């Protein structure tokens, strides 16, 4: 008996559904109904239900009550390495782009000041951007930097990699960061910018980035679409 034939039926059907209807498909593409899948693969609806349930649990599919089951589509895995959005998207074989939503010199809030080691009200440059992959909106980003470290930053092109700009123009060697991750939902105005439903799930990452000497260079809050990004990291014992 082969290992494949010895596997539970639902696992074999899960692999077949994945190959036929999920892998490489665009987001929001519907898969066939449970009854149709059962007939196609010659198994019970209960087996199909369990196989599809596993794909849903793994984040490959999502179900809408009364409407059907749909592909999540190709996503981007966000690692815990110090990579820029531009680098992460290109590593996944996609083309990054940005829409500048706003740039201004503002007084640092208590939260931003604490993260940057500044006094509340100290001047920071705030950059708000909509980040895209292959033209599709992926996340909202708000970066704050101490004005004293990046004079005239607003006069540069801020639609590309900010980390590359900081290195090339200001000589900032960004070497490590502290990150905090939490699950949130998008407010209606944020959802509209991203083209998703209000209160859709998001992955919010707060990152304080340090230079090689330990100086605080940037505080960034990024809200990633939960249907497009996953968090990937390794642990050791």
TrEMBL record:
Record-linked Gene3D superfamilies: Chorismate lyase-like, Winged helix-like DNA-binding domain superfamily/Winged helix DNA-binding domain
CDD domains named among the record's database cross-references: WHTH_GntR
UniProt keyword terms in alphabetical order: DNA-binding, Transcription, Transcription regulation
GO molecular function ontology, one term from the record: DNA binding
Residue ranges of every copy of the HTH gntR-type domain listed in the record: 7-74
Any Pfam family: UTRA
N-terminal signal peptide: none
Name of the molecule in the record: GntR family transcriptional regulator
């Amino acid at each position: 008996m082969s290992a494949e034939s010895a596997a539970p039926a639902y696992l074999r059907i899960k692999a077949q559904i994945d190959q036929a209807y999920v892998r490489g498909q665009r987001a929001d593409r519907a898969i066939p109904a449970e009854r149709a899948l059962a007939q196609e693969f010659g198994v019970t609806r209960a087996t199909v239900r369990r196989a599809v349930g596993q794909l849903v649990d793994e984040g490959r599919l999502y179900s809408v009550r009364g409407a059907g089951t749909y592909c999540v589509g190709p996503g981007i895995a966000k690692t815990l390495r110090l990579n820029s959005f531009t680098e992460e998207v290109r590593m996944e074989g996609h083309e990054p782009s940005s829409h500048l939503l706003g740039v201004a010199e503002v007084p640092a809030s208590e939260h931003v000041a604490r993260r940057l080691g500044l006094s509340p009200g100290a001047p920071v440059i705030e950059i708000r951007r909509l980040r895209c992959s292959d033209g599709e909106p992926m996340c909202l980003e708000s970066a704050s930097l101490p004005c004293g470290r990046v004079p005239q930053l607003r006069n540069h092109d801020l639609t590309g990699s900010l980390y590359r700009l900081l290195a090339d123009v200001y000589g900032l060697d960004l070497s490590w960061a502290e990150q905090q991750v939490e699950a949130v939902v998008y407010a209606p105005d944020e959802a509209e910018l991203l083209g998703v439903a209000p209160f859709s799930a998001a992955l919010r990452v707060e990152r304080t980035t340090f230079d090689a000497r330990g100086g605080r260079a940037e505080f960034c809050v990024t809200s990633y679409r939960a249907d497009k990004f996953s968090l990937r990291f390794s642990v050791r014992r």
